[in-house]
Amino acid sequence: MAMPDPRPRLADLWEALALLSRLPVPDHAPRGAASAWAWPLAGAAVAAMAAACGSLGAALGFGAGVNAAIILIAQAMATGALHEDGLADTADGLWGGRTRARRLEIMKDSRIGSYGVLALLLITLIRWSALTGLVAASAHWPALIAAGALSRVPMAALMAALPNARGTGLSQSVGRPTGATVGLGAALALALALAVGGLMVLAMALVMALTAAALGLIARARIGGQTGDILGASQQLAEAAALAVASATL
Question: Which pTM value belongs to this model?
Fold first, then answer.
C-alpha cells in the first residue's frame, strides 16, 4: 500500500475536524495520520466555540461556575465526548487489569468501572474549577484556545512514539504520523497559543508535556504501547493540566 503524501494540505483541516469532533465538514479525501499536524487547529476551533458559549452565558447573567459548566458541555457536545470516553477506558484498563491482555480487554469494553468514573469526576472537577476562576477573570478565551491547541499535540506525539498496543482500532487505522508531521503540529500549536496567551503558555506547554510523557511511560509499561483510548486520555489530562496552570497565573 502506498504511503500518503506527508506534505500538509488544506483539506487536512477538514480531516482533523472529522476525526476529533462531530462538527459537519465538507467532503474530503482522508489521509489518516498525515493530517495530524492539523489536530491542534481542530482543538482550537472546538475551544473557541466553547469559549463563545461561556461568554454568551456571562452575557445572560449566569455566574462563573455555571458558565464553566456550559463550556465543558459545549466541548463534550462538539467532540462527542470522544476524549472523555478515552480517559474513562484508560483508567479502567490500566488500573483494573492484572495482565496486559486483560487491561486491553477492559479498555475495549464499553462499560465503565469505578476507576473510569473516578477519573472522569476528578479530571472534570479540575477543569471546571480552573475554568470557574478563568471565567470570573474574563480570561477564559486565551486559556481555552491555548489549551485546546496544545492538548492535541500529545495525541500525535504518543502516536508517533509508541507502537499500537492492540493492532486494531481507530488508532491503528489512522496510522502513525511522521516526526515532521508531529513537529509541524507542535510548532503551530505553540505559535497559536503564544499569540493568544503570551508567555504564560510556556508553563502550560511544559506541564502538559510532562503529563503526557508520564502517561506514555505508564501505557508502555502496562499495555506495551498506545491505543485510541490512551490518546484520548492524553488530551484530557493535558487540558486539565494546562487550565490548572492558566488559573494559577491569575
Answer: 0.93
